[in-house]
Amino acid sequence: MNPTVETLAAAFAAVDQPQLLAARQMQALSFAVHIPLVCFGMAFPTLVLFAEWRWLRTGDPLYRALAMRWSKVMLALFAVGVVTGTILSFELGLLWPGFMAAFGDVFGLAFALEGFSFFAEAIFIAIYVYGWRRLAPWSHFLSGIPVALAGVAGSFFVIAVDAWMQHPSGFALRDGRAVDVAPWSALFADPFLWHLWAHMYFAAYVVAGFLVASAYAWSVLRGNAGRYERIALGIALAAATLASPLQLLIGDWAARDVARHQPVKLAAMEGLATTTRGAPLHLLGWYDGREVVYGIAIPRMLSLLAFHDPDAPVAGLETVPPAERPPVNGVRFAFQTMVGIGSLLALLSGVFLWARVRTGRMPASRWFLRALVAAGPLSVVALIAGWVATEVGRQPWVVYEIMRTSEAVTGAPGIPIGFATLSAVYAALAVAVAWMLRRLARTPLDPEARRAR
Amino acid sequence: MLAELPAILMLVGLAAYAVLAGADFGAGFWMLFARRRRASLQATRDHARHAMGPVWEANHVWLIFVLVVCWTAYPTAFASILSTLSIPMFVAAVGIILRGASYALRAELDLAPGRRSIENVFALSSILTPFALGVVIGAIASGRVPVGNAQGDPIASWLQPTSLLVGALFVATSSDLAAVYLAADACRLDESHLEDDFRSRALRTGVVAGALALAGPFVLRADAPRIWDGLTRDGGLAMVALSTAAGLTTLALVARRRFGPARVSAALAVAAIVAGFGFAQQPELLPGLRIDQAAAGRPTLVAIAVGVAAGAIVLVPSLGLLFGLFLRGRLESVSDASTLPDVAPAASPDRPSRLGALPLTCFVVGAGLLLLADVTWARAVGAVSLLAFAWPAFVRLAVVADE
Q1: How many whole angstroms separate alpha carbon B305 and alpha carbon B5?
Q2: What residues contact residue A225 under an 8 Å CB cut-off, 6+ apart?
Q3: What kind and span of H or E run contains A297?
Q4: How many whole angstroms from its chain centre is CA A370?
Q5: What is the rounded CA–CA span in Å between residue A87 and residue A422?
Q6: φ/ψ of residue B224, rounded to 5
Q7: Which chain B residues are closer than 8 Å to A450 by Cβ?
Q8: Do the chains contact at A362 and B104, CB–CB below 8 Å?
Q9: Which one, A18, A219, B250, B336, has the greatest CB density within 10 A?
Q10: What's the CA gap between B237 and B260, in Å, rounded?
């Protein structure tokens, strides 16, 4: 037994922080900047390796030109992801010392393991991107495999922490502090982990695939419909259009886990005030504090989706006191945005796959290309909306039903200054990255690849 | 012992960061402060920039390693430090963003207008970041971080002599390390002008860094007597002596152009300072909080030890491979593909067959399990089955597109 538990609990007792909302927004901003880059870390190395594998199989230099160019984009996005990820780890302590002090020993292990996968990623991405000339072709290809694996492993460890925050276990509470900690089972025996991770894994391919497809569709629309563009578009589209429809199945799994383990979050996503048997699903509309108004109701649909039973009872917001409910309209709007965009992307994918399998060629319609140009940014909106639904839906808890976000926040002054500074830096960063990618896209292909197209 | 193990790991991480990331910070310093000498200014800047190209991300990860070990093993100490020292930590964070972003940006900007200002942002943030991190270490060392949520003074905790000294020292050792390493790289590349320039820079900053390191203890005696005591006895004293000896050796080696061994002795001089800090800081992590009181419970500490051991099995050979390739000059930025090794063209067009029955079965099984199963493991099997369908389907879709 640690004699200092009581004194430490007093030192980290909840503080009165008037800028709690600014702290939450600062964290949310940092997260929204980082998470699209994570998608590229998880999915893009596979696409780059695929292009290189095609070069090794066919000897066609165009594939190598594509893999080389993509590997540069991969490195640049990784570099930006390294720093935005570092900021997130700083903010855990800068903004949420109460959370870290109480529970760092429970979930920290996952971040340590994530640190190692991050290390492996940084090492092999350097060997891969700077090794095109001096490594033998197949060795070079093999040096890229750890990059792809480490990106996926890293996401697994970080999502294990999020799953633990949503569905905490593996410790006992004494004076608001964790004791008798079992870190391995807390993190990796959590049933909440698997759907979250699967959902993020497919989301990574949806986002990275559609964003890359978006760029090449834009290029084709502007008249650059060479073989290079068509091959690049084909690889990106293959990933995105397979992942989008499959994501619907994973999303169904996620929704049913949330319905079982976090009924209040589900009630907020759907704007359900009272516990209802055979609950309807509302599209659009607004939650006025008692019910959804101006929405389109589909009878029994919510019970059917959440429990696969049209008569199942669905818990309402009334099951917890008002102070323990998340902000309903924000969560509901984010959730509907994610589901709406996700369904549109799956539909677009279905159209593509149908045309592709039936005719054996790429759809040439300009409307299809225009839809693709829109699909990239929309997929990012859906990604961020999904995380908003997950994390704002967790409020007011930082550790679900254990610790409130207001108990975790720092007592330090000046949060709005930090928030404003970070916003300005990230705005500049966004402009810089957009400009850099645009410049990279305009650099002419090297002569050999141009001959091949 | 188990309670101290993570602290030792953190010191190792800190030493690696001070040496490896320090040399990268110093390269930024020289991009700003190098005057034109024998080599042209642009050649000097390019040399400094290219030298860290492949390794800076890996070097940066040491900082993440120190942070995550700290918050897992000593969560209350981590929370106390970050909340009280929020200003210098935030400054370091902004420095890290600007530095990483400007470096990535600069790499894409050969000959474009605006590259100079990007380089300046990079160089300034390469000075700001180590200074701010040094300030943080100085505040911890001088006992100005009380236990608790933002319990220390938000300004006075870090705006004091020890912090300013350690901040300046980190910038100075970084610049010195970088000068030695850049001279060594120039020597390997047979760039004699650059080699001469960085040799004389290494000699001068070596003297400056050494002077700061020697003056430091007297600042500490007045401002942080506990650390002074620690540095003047036992292990602390031994490390100060080791650092001094390694620093003098480095000067002698650089003067004789023995850059290979100088790399090692310069790194040793910096690492010894970090080790000395470790000796002097114990047994209290923060005032009133001994290491064993700050440490997490036994299961967490064992988990860290297991995790680090497993990570080391993967990382040590990987880091060896990276630095082996890097120091032999086998990693380089490639822009012209026409000079690369080729593979023979395939004899016949390589077109995969139609999607077989197995992947389609996997799809049906996966979708069925996900929609109908009620236990997590069955749904996880369902998700894996979907992947077993998606990968072959992806290969066929992406390849047939090539027509």
Answers
A1: 8
A2: none
A3: strand A296-298
A4: 25
A5: 10
A6: -140, 70
A7: none
A8: no
A9: B250
A10: 27
CA-to-CA distance for A335 and A329, rounded, in angstroms? 10
CB–CB of B96 and A86 under 8 A? yes
* Separation CA B110–CA B115 (nearest Å): 7
Asked if A191's CB is within 8 angstroms of B376's CB, the reply is yes
* Distance separating the N- and C-terminal Cα atoms of chain A: 71
* pLDDT tens digit at each of 403 positions of chain B: 788 899 999 999 999 999 999 988 998 898 888 777 777 888 888 888 887 777 888 888 899 999 999 999 999 999 999 999 999 999 999 999 999 888 888 777 665 667 788 888 889 999 999 999 999 999 999 889 988 888 888 998 889 998 999 999 999 999 999 999 999 988 888 888 889 999 999 999 999 988 888 888 888 888 888 888 888 888 889 999 999 999 999 999 999 999 889 999 999 999 999 999 989 888 888 888 888 888 888 899 999 999 999 999 988 999 899 888 888 878 877 766 666 777 777 766 666 667 788 888 888 999 898 888 888 888 889 999 999 998 988 988 888 545 5
A247 close to A199: Cβ distance less than 8 angstroms? yes
CB A141 within 8 A of CB A127: no
Q: Which candidate, A3, A412, A393, A396, places its Cα nearest to that of A177?
A: A3
CA A30 distance to own-chain centroid: 13
Distance between CA A273 and CA A290 in Å, rounded? 6
Nearest by CB to B97, which of A83, A106, A129? Answer: A83
Q: Note whether A2 and B138 are within 8 A (CB).
A: no
How far is it, in rounded angstroms, from Cα B178 to Cα B29? 9
φ/ψ of A344, rounded to 5, equals: -60, -40
By CB atoms closer than 10 A (0-12, 13-18, 19+), residue B333 is middle
User: Is the pTM of the predicted complex or chain greater than 0.80?
Assistant: yes
Rounded CA gap, B243 and A322, in Å?
61
Number of helices followed by number of strands (H, E) in chain A = 15, 10
User: What's phi and psi for A404, nearest 5 deg?
Assistant: -80, 150
The whole-angstrom separation of Cα B277 and Cα B54 is: 30
Please classify residue B82 by burial: count the beta carbons closer than 10 Å to its beta carbon, then call 0-12 exposed, 13-18 middle and 19+ buried.
buried
Cβ(A264)–Cβ(A319) below 8 Å: yes
Residues in chain A: 453
Tell me the backbone φ, ψ of residue A297, rounded to 5 degrees. Answer: -90, 135
Q: Does B245 touch chain A (CB under 8 A)?
A: no
d(CA A89, CA A20): 18
Nearest to A412 among B107, B154, B371 (CB): B154
Per DSSP bridges, beta strands A296-298 and A292-293 are unpaired
Residues 6+ apart with CB under 8 A from A424: none
CA distance B227 to B224: 6
Chains A, B: CB pairs < 8 Å: 353
Q: Is A1 exposed, middle or buried (0-12, 13-18, 19+ CB in 10 A)?
A: exposed
Find, among B395, B386, B392, the residue nearest to B364 by Cα: B386
Selecting from A59, A242, A440 the residue whose C-beta is nearest the C-beta of B343 gives A59
Question: B402–A449: do the CB atoms touch at under 8 Å?
Answer: no
Q: Tell me whether residue A383 is exposed, middle or buried, using C-beta atoms within 10 angstroms of its C-beta: 0 to 12, 13 to 18, 19 or more.
A: buried
DSSP B129: H
Q: How far apart are CA B124 and CA B118, in angstroms?
A: 10
Task: State the complex-level ipTM.
Answer: 0.89
Which tokens hold the place of B295?
């440490």
